[in-house]
Specification:
CATH architecture: Orthogonal Bundle
Number of helices: 14
CATH superfamily: MetI-like
Number of domains: 1
Radius of gyration: 24 Å
Number of strands: 2
Helix content: 55-70%
Distance between the termini: 28 Å
Strand content: under 5%
Largest sheet: 2 strands, antiparallel
Structural class: mainly alpha
Order of helices and strands: HEEHHHHHHHHHHHHH
Amino acid sequence: MTTYVQTAADDPEAKQPKPPDSDRSRAENRLARNLVAPALILMLLVTAFPMLRALYLSLFSYSLTSPDDRKFVGLSNYGTALSDPLFWRDTGNTVMIMIITVVVELVIGFAFAMVMHKVIFARGTVRTSILIPYGVITVVSGFAWQFAFSNTNGFVNSWLPGVSDDFNWFAEYPSSMMAIMASEIWKTTPFMSLLLLAGLAQVSEDMLEAAKVDGATWWQRLYKVILPNMRAAIMVAVLFRALDAYRIFDNIFVMTAGANGTESISFLTYRQVIEQFQLGIGSALSVLLFLSVLVVAFLIVKLFRVDLADARQES
């Protein structure tokens, strides 16, 4: 069966050479840059200073308990972090949480997006009800799910078949991680569905009708028409959620406080800086976290291989 993918090459007008910018267009672009520049400069100052400061502090052995003993150690803090099994264990936890939650959210979020896209009656009510969890503050959500998984007054044990009423979800590593990921999925699936809904709106109804006339089933239309034309939207949704999940902190802090080996890289950095006052090693961990986030973003973009210019039907 033919795959119906709408690209810029299918549009005869897209093959025409782009006309040169007019004086008015250049003036509008100049005005836009001038309007954006102040906010951009302010954002760079606000974000660049903490990053450069963290990079600077990571080169020192520096503890708040003895600030006068600060000394330059170069890349020693990075070597200490990378040679510590605790760092790699927490990295494994972070990657596992990211992969599992994003995959589950992608599937459930797509189902929600299809419902929001196809619903006719009470569309506003349906969309609002689906998006409610995303409006809940993450800390509040963490406390709510901690209560739900409680073995004394929670309701999860009574709802799940085969689970005893006194089962303690936070007593062991596997169940603790399941509870953390469940709270993360519940909280952020609406965000994924919102991004996928925007992608569904870009799928041409004419292509769907053509595929239906060709005798394609619903599953064939999904895999041959809908998903290929949503590739850019799916990449954006996965990218945003993966980067957010990789920096998970709130749910772990509220639900387990890192007990049973459930720490993430962000939580490990918090322990070093806030609890142990080790600014040097903590800054090194924050820099490593930043670099790993860049690596994750690069891998996701390479995995999807989406040309955003073609996705926008630009020449």
